[in-house]
Predict the structure.
Amino acid sequence: MKSLKNIILISCFILIILTCNKTLAATDEFKAFISQDIYNDYSTGQYTAREAIAIAERVFRNKLNYINSAGANSYTITNSADTVKNYISHLGNNYALVTFSHGDDGAFTMGEKNGVAQWIAYDNNTISGYWHLIFINSCNSMKTDKLAQAFKTIGYSNRAALGWYSTVGGPALKYWWASYEQYAGKYSVSEAAVKAANDCIDTPYSTPIRAYGDKNNWNGKAW
Amino acid sequence: MKRKFILILLVTVLIFSCLSVVFAFTNKKENGKSEKNLELISIAETYAAIDSKNISKLAVNKKEDIVSIANTYLKKFEYASKGLNEKEKLRINDNNILNEDDEMSIEYNYSGLKLRNEIMWDTNEYALTINADTGKIINYSKHMSIFPKCELEREKIEIIANELFKNIDICNVNEYEMIYLEEYDEGIWWVAFAKKYGDLINSGEIVKFHFIPETKEIWVLGTNNIAYDNNEVLISEEMARNIANQYLEKSVATDMKISLAIVNPNEMLLEGNLRTDKVHSFAQYMRKAYVCEFNNEAQTQIYIDCTTGDVLGGTMMLGGDF
């Protein structure tokens, strides 16, 4: 009888600890990446990408409650697609990703190797895992749902992918992120994104944002 | 026996506590060769909240007036969606959507060109922001999660977009022109109307909205009301070309084409080795300028003020070479 009581007590303690453990450990992590060429070209239109990634980092951390696995207020500047691939394939709580780089439908790149762009693409086995929130800031990245499918953000609750369905550039990108900061986490992923798009002053480039996945019910916040 | 039990219990608690801490606070390290993390440059917050008591200082200074203005806008959106006739509008005109007890927030927006006081409502159904100084609508959205698939032809969708723009009645539609109509997803389309000035359009005075063609509902709308300075053309195209040439020499482009347009002065070219003394940062108005578009992949554009010859900034595609 006494031994049964002990077992129950121990079980209860283990259960409590496990619950605490899950609560503390389950918060999603993210990382922000910007390609070196965009980052270095500060004197021209790319300066907006440098400012936009600063806002993006803040949005993911403060508004969407993800933990920056590189440390708060930090982002990664890289000319190597491998750096991003390493993060994508890394096991752990890395469930969110935001990037700023060249891109195209279903693909983006962080740099070149011997003059050849190193693509991270939906069809070249560089994307793995089940992601909660990804944001690929590259022209045409979300023209179709290829990247959203590759990151497995479609067909599940509380998962989404965001990006641009056409060309985006210059100051428009920064204006969009500045507006998005007001709405992120407050409304559904899709509503927050298009509210920001409609707030922006169009340059020759509008802000053609598009979301896939659980975009109309989920607010994008970390699990 | 009792000591043994306590010992087991303590060890178990200790192990799980350690695991919790390790799982929760461990930062994953990576070994990217060219990776470096950089401390961000501090950027001022976009918004600064103003104490709600300051409402009396705003141009629209009575709460009942503000709520009345907000209700007028919300009803307009309801009318626009339902296509009500004048008789039907009168019948439901007394049913206010917001009342004076509904919570509203007042903020001062000083991002970019938009220096203004804003009043916002955010209910379970709607979000609405109006300019506290002018009473004009800034943005609106109806919180929705289900959107019927659109089976209509583009021509029909264009007609619906024009009808909705007319029905919401927030500006003189005759002065505006549709500048784009795009599919957002299978149930939602995006349209923008900008104010015309002869052959030019001012994208600073713009109404953009996402709508559901099948139900004729506006989902999300945003406006801007940045006036056009209507500045004279005092410098020639050739002079503008000469000014832009100093940038072309530093570009991967080899030539440019020039046209007149109303532009939004911006910060591009303010920093770095392309900076000149005659670059504007922000202006209170949209300006007429020569837009010098380079023949590079990034389609770099440099804005030259057609009155003063000042460089007003520019734009280029994300990721392209200058």
